[in-house]
Amino acid sequence: MKKTDPEVLERAIALYVGGMPVNEIVKSAGEGRISKSTIYRELDERGIARQQARHQTSK
After folding, report:
1. What is the rounded distance in angstroms from the CA atom of residue 23 to the CA atom of residue 11?
2. How far apart are CA 39 and CA 13, in angstroms?
3. Measured distance CA(13)–CA(5) in Å, rounded
4. CA distances from 2 to 34, 40, 43 (A)
5. Phi-psi region of 56 (alpha: psi -120 to 50; beta: other; left: phi over 0)
6. Is the pTM of this model over 0.85?
7. DSSP 54
8. Which of 27, 46, 50, 54 has CA atoms 20 to 30 A from the CA of 10?
9. Mind listing the pLDDT tens digit of every residue in the chain (59 residues)?
10. Contact partners, residue 11, CB within 8 Å, separation at least 6
11. What is the Cα–Cα distance from 27 to 35, expressed in whole angstroms?
12. Contact in structure between 15 and 21 (CB atoms under 8 Å)
């Protein structure tokens, strides 16, 4: 398993807590710098609740 840069991980967590979706965090970090699973694992370890989908469309 590839080691994730601690600064990238800290920034990703801060962005998530600030309301940015995980998909956008991964895109903004750049290809191969961090994965969704790494972010979710770190959130679970820190006890940070996952966000619910904000925009649900009804038909």
Report:
1. 14
2. 7
3. 13
4. 10, 16, 18
5. beta
6. no
7. S
8. 54
9. 578 899 999 999 999 999 999 999 999 998 889 999 999 999 999 999 988 755 444 44
10. 29
11. 9
12. no
